[in-house]
Specification:
Blueprint lengths: L4 E3 L10 H10 L4 E4 L6 H11 L4 E4 L2 E2 L5 H14 L4 E2 L2 E2 L2
Length: 95
């Protein structure tokens, strides 16, 4: 089965709009929403999305591995996974 995800537009989107966008993606049948780390933390947007959705997977489409300790990265992902009831997908890279 093919799974389809969509990137959250976090570059110029105010944070209060992210939960509704994630919910719209979930309602439209997407399997996942993704946040990336360029100008802001993907973890903040995904936390907001987690609180507004019930089934859609939430992922980091590259969170910087070199700017946080592995412990902080894992702990942050675990926090989101707790809010999302097991839906967090962690993607890390060098940029």
């Amino acid at each position: 089965m093919t799974k389809i995800g969509i990137s959250l537009p976090i570059y110029n989107t105010p944070l209060p709009e992210i939960p509704a966008m994630a919910k719209q993606a979930e309602d439209a049948g997407f399997d996942s929403v993704w946040s990336y780390e360029i100008y802001s933390s993907p973890y903040v947007a995904l936390t907001a999305a987690a609180l507004a959705t019930e089934r859609i997977a939430l992922g980091t489409a590259i969170a910087h591995a070199s700017t946080r300790s592995p412990w902080v990265t894992a702990n942050t992902a675990l926090d989101i996974d707790t809010y999302a009831h097991g839906r967090m997908l962690l993607g890390i890279g060098m940029g």
